[in-house]
Design goal:
Keywords: DNA-binding, Transcription, Transcription regulation
Distance between the termini: 68 Å
Number of domains: 3
Family: Belongs to the LysR transcriptional regulatory family.
Organism: Rhizobium tropici
CATH architecture of the largest domain: 3-Layer(aba) Sandwich
Protein name: HTH-type transcriptional regulator TtuA
Strand content: 15-25%
Largest sheet: 5 strands, mixed
GO molecular function, one term: DNA binding
Radius of gyration: 33 Å
């Protein structure tokens, strides 16, 4: 039969009894009754077959075996207390430190970067580490805490996904372009226009444009543009449309400021497709640091800035 494992409380009782010279005082410091601490030491001695303390009604002293072990016991208890302190500090500091967030490059620059000053004011103890990427990544392998991604995100084992917000897609062009070329009335009219295509870096192909039916019913229409220009940077697509190069199809959050400023005008509004979801994804651990929850909560509270 294997020998029972020595417990932390047994070592603590032994050390406190010796240091205080009293079972009663050792019990008080450890939150145990005098009989409880006495039974703990008795079980330790019985389990190991060695007497550590000489005790009588009026005296208490170490046996030779106890004298040999007390130094090691004190060192072990000190180490345990250091580990406990470190764990307590780590739990407290879970609200502080670095949070690494991966987001689509255009979303990072258009939506997250403008919020960084407000975030620093709200959470000065959190270092926000923002990383632009249009590829789905492995959170553990790439050392990322939270991933923001749009569109269809299949269930990833061991991960938790939460909706950040839903956004519309907008076909748009500069007022100067529309004044010169006219405004399309239906998606098929796009064949007569200069279109700015976006090459998806994940797929390597130019994204299809999606439209709904004019009356709000029926199936979605996917329009594969014959572009006059192709770019693989979403920010560049928006800037090129503002410059008057043609019609672009873009997420609303990317062109919202330009639409409000009048440097872009929407077209085919009545043919708008269903919104797309921007997801927040993190590892599904019960003990994620508090700072991660605070970052995700901040993003959710500031969704209005993305629209």
């Amino acid at each position: 039969m294997s020998t029972p494992t020595l417990s932390t409380i047994q070592l603590q009782c032994f050390v406190r009894i010796v240091d205080t010279g009293s079972f009663a005082e050792a019990g008080r410091q450890l939150g145990l009754s005098t009989s409880g601490i006495s039974k703990t030491i008795a079980r330790l001695e019985e389990m190991r077959g060695v007497r550590l303390l000489n005790r009588s009604t009026h005296s208490l002293s170490l046996t030779p075996e106890g004298e040999e072990l007390i130094g090691l016991a004190r060192e072990a208890v000190r180490s345990i207390e250091q580990v406990d302190t470190a764990l307590t500090t780590a739990a407290r500091d879970g609200a502080q430190g670095r949070v690494r967030v991966s987001a689509p490059t255009a979303f990072l620059s258009a939506c997250l970067a403008p919020l960084t000053s407000a975030f620093r004011l709200a959470h000065p103890d959190i270092l926000l580490d923002l990383r632009g990427s249009d590829h789905m990544i492995d959170l553990a392998e790439d050392g990322v805490d939270i991933v923001l991604r749009a569109g269809t995100v299949d269930g990833i084992p061991g991960h938790l996904q939460r909706t950040l917000f839903d956004f519309a897609w907008v076909a748009c062009a500069s007022p100067a372009y529309l004044s010169n070329r006219g405004e399309p009335s239906t998606p098929s009219d796009l064949s007569n226009h200069d279109l700015i295509g976006f090459r998806n870096q994940r797929t390597g192909v130019v994204d299809a444009w999606r439209f709904g039916s004019r009356d709000g019913g029926g199936s979605e229409l996917r329009w594969y543009p014959s572009p006059a220009l192709i770019l693989d940077d979403a920010n560049a697509v928006a800037r090129t449309a503002i410059a008057g190069a043609g019609i672009a199809w873009a997420p609303h959050w990317l062109v919202a400021d330009a639409l409000r400023a009048g440097s872009l005008s929407p077209v085919l509004d009545e043919w708008a497709c269903e919104p797309t979801t921007m997801w927040m994804i993190r590892r599904n651990h019960a003990l994620n640091p508090t700072r991660m929850d605070r970052v995700m909560t901040f993003f959710r509270k500031n969704v209005a800035a993305f629209c």
